[in-house]
Specification:
By secondary structure, the chain is α+β, with helices and mostly antiparallel strands. The protein has 5 helices and 7 strands. Strands 1, 2, 3, 4, 5, 6 and 7 form a 7-stranded antiparallel β-sheet that branches. The radius of gyration is 26 Å and the shape is elongated.
Length: 208
């Protein structure tokens, strides 16, 4: 028998079973057999092995799409990963020691000098902004934010690495939203809390 054909046929069979029966059981088996068949087909230069394994891969995808149980498992794993991230952030924030850096008309900014450290050519530091009046994000009201910032001292630029939005003041209450996508680099305008935070982070005396 041509290399990869047997594993590919098993992948097809398990894929069909995954579509019409227990996807959570047969779809992973279909994926495993299809991958093994494809690898063996490629190594043995078997067109039949490659073809039937690709068909097994297609049926595997169809089995995943039509399997509610796999969707529930995948969604559960995603939610759990996000919850673990928020739990870790909540645990870390208890160790923060905030120092007031800038007082504006509508908010006050704080920095934790103990979090300042050099990473490559940049400096990272945790900061917090506490608002006088509630703000809104994605339809949720928040009164303070905490985030990790990265600073380019030579270019006088900064970006937000990730941030958390709290319903209460000074990082208290529930986390109503989070953002783990880094923002683009931006200049720190003179006289703003961003400039004051950059000065704190880039002060050699404050670095670890």
């Amino acid at each position: 028998m041509n290399p990869g054909v047997l594993a590919g046929v098993l992948g097809c069979a398990f894929g069909v079973l995954g579509i019409f029966t227990l996807g959570i059981v047969f779809v992973p088996l279909a994926a495993l057999c299809s991958v093994i068949g494809l690898l063996r087909g490629l190594s043995g230069r078997s067109g039949a092995g490659i073809g039937v394994s690709l068909l097994g891969g297609f049926l595997t995808v169809m089995g995943f799409i039509f399997s509610p149980s796999l969707w529930l498992v995948t969604s559960g794993l995603f939610v759990a990963s996000q919850s673990n991230g928020l739990t870790a952030a909540q645990a870390d924030k208890e160790e923060f020691t905030w120092v007031k850096v800038h007082a504006g008309l509508d908010s006050t900014s704080y920095a934790d000098l103990g979090t300042i450290q050099s990473i490559g050519d940049g400096i990272v530091m945790w900061g917090m902004q506490d608002f006088e009046t509630p703000q809104t994000i994605n339809g949720n009201s928040y009164s303070s934010t905490e985030g990790e910032f990265e600073y380019n001292c030579e270019g006088a630029q900064f970006r937000v690495v990730h941030s958390l939005f709290y319903s209460g003041h000074m990082g208290t209450g529930a986390i109503v939203s989070s953002d783990y996508n880094s923002t683009p680099w931006a200049a720190a305008p003179p006289g703003t809390h961003s400039e004051d935070m950059l000065k704190i982070a880039c002060n050699d005396d404050n670095r670890k």
